[in-house]
Every structure is written in structure tokens, then in C-alpha cells.
Amino acid sequence: MMDVNIIGGGVIGLSIAYELVNQGLTVAVFDRQQFGQEASWAGAGMLPPANIECVTTPAGQLRAASQPLWPAWSRRLQEESGIDNGYLICGGLHLSLSEDVADWQSYVEDWHKTGTVVEELDSVSLRERAPFLSEQIQAGFYLPEMGQVRNPRHMKALLSACAHQGVVMHAGAPVVGFETQGEKISGIQTPSGVHRAGQTVIAGGAWTPEVLSRLGLQCELVPVQGQIVLLSMKHLPFRQVIESGRRYLVPRSDGKILIGSTEKHAGFNKENTAEGVAGLIAFAQSVVPGLKDATFERAWAGLRPKSIDGLPYLGRVDGYQNLIMAAGHYRDGLQLSPITAKLIRQLICEEELSISLEPFSCQRGIDID
Ligand SMILES: Cc1cc2nc3c(=O)[nH]c(=O)nc-3n(C[C@H](O)[C@H](O)[C@H](O)COP(=O)(O)OP(=O)(O)OC[C@H]3O[C@@H](n4cnc5c(N)ncnc54)[C@H](O)[C@@H]3O)c2cc1C
After folding, report:
1. According to the model, what pLDDT value does residue 212 have?
2. Is 0.90 surpassed by the pTM of this model?
3. At a CB cut-off of 8 Å and minimum separation 6, what does 314 contact?
């Protein structure tokens, strides 16, 4: 009998496991396949900044509370796993391309409202700061506090640190049912049998509705496919993240460049399309013309878990005293993983919550079938 069973071994499930085991709880994590192979592996790992003193929206609060946790998380994971997750503050350029941002001025204002440092750039200062950009781009702003992490390395570090701390890891263990006693979940069912625990956390990413359906619950959460193209160059002309609307370039320190991303409701399809790949490459070259000489490495797609309003479901599920949800982080699951883990730990350990979970209530999108 464990203290906590966690369903789903993506960045959310593993971060919660790591946080709980460090609190002295016994924890088991179950994944239907190998750990960390879905959205958490596929994402770009951008970590945008925000200032907790200034933010007013629930999304901004989560982001601002998560960002300062990254340096210590990364350090601790490296100490325990020996793996450098590639966390760094690299700065970020946001560019004004008319087709990407409809109202540039209010977009800039929204960034100012997050209380982070925003350096506005006209065509001259943009050229000085970023001579590698296409001359067609006339304006932008720079966020010196923008960060990034390398997803596959972060997942490896988390996995290794969880195993090192004694988290019981069940790979290839799909959760196919629940054992209940009145209003309590007493165990979860996998093909190898029933595994009992005092609390159950569902962190199943885009597959969360399927897991909840085993309890007769309906969950408003859909997969949103995102494609990414990977290029490489011997001598990278830029070191900062470059964004325009929902598309971006993320340079890694070894010369790799991620170009993301598309957004499509395509069910659980993770295939790359000619249109998606060509569109991303065309975008990258229109922003940084020097990328025409880059090498094409590969392309992939992942499934972002999107809730009813784009905010994650965090907290207890009505009808069960010991069932907790942490799913639906959509485009922000990597950046929000440290604060998600902290909040779920506070909930389980009955500590004071650092942020109210009201806006993230599961009752927004979970119903009895
Ligand atoms: C292209 C792309 C770019 C992105 N870029 C960024 C970014 O720059 N910054 C950022 O913060 N976020 C980004 N994201 C979003 C981020 O990747 C996700 O929000 C995050 O990975 C969600 O994590 P998760 O653990 O909830 O889901 P997942 O990583 O999908 O993990 C869910 C896990 O549950 C398991 N599972 C499912 N069903 C069962 C079952 N029945 N039993 C057992 N296990 C089960 C799955 O196998 C899977 O391993 C991006 C996503 C994509 C696709």
C-alpha cells in the first residue's frame, strides 16, 4: 500500500512524484508505455517570465509562481541524476509580423502588465540587437528574462531522480480501471493487478478523459496537435528564443534549432504533414534568412492537453474524497510543472496553498456521464 498512486508519467506526473517523495511519502507512478514519451518529450521547453507582484490573471499567477522555482529544481535534479537539463536564461525576442499578431500594441501592453522587463525595439534598435533578422521585420521587443529547458534531458533527469529517491516506477502499465469503496478510490487496476494507495492523482495528459471514463466521469479535455521541425547549424547566428504570435524558434547550445509550432485538432494523430513542415521552415527562413543553409534533422508532433478554457484542472474531483487531478496544461505544461508539483504536494499534505486553486477547479469540466 503506497501513500500516493500517480497515473501518467509525463512531466506533470513525474514532477508531482518527485515533490511528494521528497516530502517522505511513498509514491508509485504508472504509465501505459515508457515514461515521458508524449507531449512532455515533444514540447519546445520555452519558459516565459512573469512577476508575481504584478500579474492579475490565474494563468499569469501560475507562470509567475513557477518561473522562480526552475533554477533550484534544475540544480537538484542535476545533483541527483548527474543530468544537465539544459535550463538557461537565454532571452527572447518577440517580433511584429502582421499575420501573427493582430493588435501589436495591446500585445506589448499585455507583456508590460506581467511586470517582467520588456525592452521595446524599433527598426533601428532591432537591427542593432538582432542583425540576423530579415530586413522586412520592423519592430519587436526583447524579454531578457526568458528561459528554456531541453525537454528530453529534463525528462531523463526527472526519471532518474525519481528512481534514485525510491519512487516505484511502473512502465508499460496502463491503468484500465479503479477499485472503489464508497466515495474512496482504494486502488487502481493495471493488467498486472490492483495497486492500492491512500490518494490517487490523475496526470494523464491528453488521455485523461479516457482514464476518468473508467470512473463514469466525463472530462472536457482535448488533444491539440503541434508539429515541430528540428534544424541544425554549425555556427548559430542567434542565442535567444524568437517568437512571433504562436510560432517560434528555439536555439539550443549545440547548434540545434527547434521551429514550432502548428495547432490542429486532429484527434490522437501525431503524424507530420507536408503543409505543417513546409510552413514551419518557410516561417523560420522568413524571420532568419541565414537558416536557408541549415541542415534538416527531423520533425515530430505531440499532443497538448487542452481543457475547457486552456487552464489546467488542478485539485480534488467531486464525488471522491481522495482523487486529485493535474491535467490540461495545454501549451504551458513544462513551464508550469514545478508549481503544479508544489500545489499538489500542498493539497495532499494539507499545507497552506501558495495560490488559490479556485480558478483551476475540476468542476469546470468534469461531470458524471
Ligand atoms: C509541439 C509542442 C510544443 C510545446 N511547447 C511548450 C513550451 O515551449 N513550453 C511549455 O511549457 N509547454 C510546451 N508544450 C506543452 C507541454 O509539452 C504539455 O503541456 C505537457 O507536456 C503536458 O504534460 P503531461 O504530463 O500532462 O502530459 P504528457 O506528457 O502527455 O503525459 C501524459 C502521460 O500519461 C500517460 N497515460 C495516458 N493514459 C494512461 C493510462 N491509461 N495509464 C497510464 N498512463 C497513461 C501517457 O502515456 C503519457 O506518458 C508543448 C507541447 C507541444 C506538443
Report:
1. 96
2. yes
3. 325, 326, 340, 343, 344, 357, 360, 362
